[in-house]
Amino acid sequence: MKDLLETVIARAPKRTSHAQVVDQLGKAIVSGEFPVGSILPGDPELAARFRVSRTVLREAMKTLAAKGMIVPRARIGTRVTPPKEWNLFDADILTWHFACGVNEEFLQHLSEVRFAFETHAAALAARNASDAEIATMMRLAVAMGDANHSAETLAEADLKFHLSVLDASGNPFLRTVGSLIEAALVGVFRLSSPTDEKGGIDEVARNHIRIVEEIRNRNEAGARQAMEYVIKYGRDRIHEAFAKGELA
Hints:
It is elongated and about 65 Å long. Helix content is 69%, strand content 3%. It contains 12 helices and 2 strands. Strands 1-2 form a two-stranded antiparallel ribbon. The longest helix is centred in the middle third of the chain and has 25 residues, at 104-128.
């Protein structure tokens, strides 16, 4: 999780040559520098551009192909695929979207996916969570109310909480969407953090504590509604920022 926070919020550089090539080429595709349907430059040109060996470049290309972003064609070259073929649950791809600039429609789609997965996870947590898991979720929710939070530390605290709910659901498939939740939360916090608003941190903490209280009461409908409220709160904050032209 720290790697994602560093990448999306702090924009820390990737460490290995392979990771750097994947990151830079992925961003170039998402940004449209290499449009959908276009053929990427050949290995010699790309290797020179990124200052890496052809071996490193080819491994990076394999990684991007596995994400669904490119497809090699014999005697033709490597073609950029349409976004509908990309694995949008991949944390790298989501991170590149935020790095290149996202619009309100993109964020709306992310919110819809969160509504589908996280509200159900909260209801399942109300059914399945152990006392120890409930105690952990409450501790994490309360920690979100620390007045000394920066945008970065509050984002990290929020991520830990939401991932703990996915864990407590008892459904391993839900936990696999953690990378999407991570990227969505961190990206939204970078665009508009509650730390910028008077009383914002306290309200965020209260909203998350309510989720845990409903889970502790084994109220599945209440837990679902409380989680839905939290997602709507973040979505509406971003919508307001767009309406004011702050994110245009």
